[in-house]
Fold these 2 entries.
Entry 1:
Amino acid sequence: MKKVFLFFITISIILVVSQCTYHNVEEYYANTLDTITNCGDTIDVSFSKDVFPLVADHCISCHNDITQYAGRNYDSYEGILEVVENGKLLKVINHEPGYVQMPKNADKLAQCYIDIIEAWIRQGSKDN
Ligand code: HEC
């Protein structure tokens, strides 16, 4: 009897936990997160396949349509292009002195992710 009870408790906990994990921004963008495959390949960088998933994963939880921290929404190509054009994007992710460090309150992005963003900008920050 005790075992059956424990079994049901376990199942309930699993159900509750799995429900909760769907209520966040990452889940909303989950289809884009799975597409980060070319870490290290910076020859021909794509905005939609390489850059946007990174930003969705590490930045959009704060810089989105609703919260818009620092007045920014990185939910679109245009939103991201603004901080490319004002020169701040690379400075904040590289933790350059005199700039805020992004992602805020989290580890610096992996170097290969920074390389991808840098390469995309070098290649003309295209909407490709
Ligand atoms: C936990 C929330 C959070 C995350 C995640 C986050 N930011 Fe920010 N960001 C902020 C806040 C808040 C500010 C305003 C400055 C401050 O308070 O530090 C800011 C400021 C900035 C600024 C400078 C202001 C401006 O002109 O736009 C840039 C650029 C920026 N963030 C880019 C990014 C990028 C790129 C990422 C992902 C790699 C990112 N942020 C992730 C919260 C966040």
Entry 2:
Amino acid sequence: MSNQKKKRSGTVSNSPLPLAIVAIFGAAAGLTFIVAEHSPRATKSGIENSVPIVEAELSSETTTEVTATTAESTESTTLTTVSETTESKPLPPGSVTGIKLSFTDAALKVGDDPVMPLVTMTPAEADDKSEKWESTDEKVAKVDNLGNITAVGAGSCIVRVTSVNNPAVFAEVKVSVVDPNKTVTAKTKTADGTTTASQTGGNTETTTAANTAAENTRADMQVIDGITYFDGVMIVNKTYTLPQSYNPGGMTADTRAAFAELQEAAKADGLTITSVSDFRSYETQDTLYHNYVARDGQAAADTFSARAGHSEHQTGMAIDCNWAGDAFNTTPEAKWLAENAWKYGFIVRYPQDKEAITGFKYESWHIRYLGKEWAKKIYDSGLCLEEYFHIDSKYAE
Ligand SMILES: [Zn+2]
């Protein structure tokens, strides 16, 4: 491995050239180009920033103690304000004023894995983004306190998420469920359900974003030392490979630093995120993949394990967090990663319902380092990398 290669990989998202391309592409795509880096501790600093505002409204003898109680009184004031009058009093600083969901329709089948819409509460600096989830009909679909929606029986219902901080603010998912075991009772709905079932999450927002992106030509592709970059972003998937010789020797320095920052932020939110697998060499991946093939057959192995040279883990920029298995999908840590990893420069690389596009099944635990600017763009777009860059992920044969 030459130094040049290593340098290229380590600085891809920070070097001036790709950034210039980013700016051009961003402008062409009609996307907001973030000039200033997003604060790595957005939520936290938001809280800190809001304190002086609150203090300013209080008497001049404000002390640390007062600050501590401010949060409580703010919360109860919000509740009172909202339940009594919806308009007269302005909401206290730090209040939640809006909720956006990553999808608002879900067509499910009984027996399907749960689906979980990603929640974005606004403003970003709101103090308390706690969510309250409920279903209008638990015989149709249940929802847990993280927003995991599970189909129970045929029918339709509404799953609602409400801001605990400001209960006047809520968002809803229209859920329709078919029960494949009871085709008779759900005759008409089956036709509907089956056509849309595979598109759960192929929601309005995603479609809009996809359409916007589709107006643009494919991203600018460069191949340097056998490594493919789109708009300066290194891409490794079923179509684009890394050379066998490519070996950064571990997590890249940028990835390592960003991951430490992510872990720190998760810890502040009471969660522990660890790496259970990050860098894997070409040779390690080759062994791993062939073990899976021997155990599960090639067709199955190809859905969850990359062939050597096709694994993002070889980049040194991919991390499997906590538990690399489906049991992780419904955990608070998975939810936290899905909603916050972008702030630290990572994306959940293989999202739910994008299997056909990424080429890999949903992996709530696998995050990929892109740098903060790119991670925010991808997160905001609601697209996976392949959609964003208009590229494939398919093995040649
Ligand atoms: Zn992984």
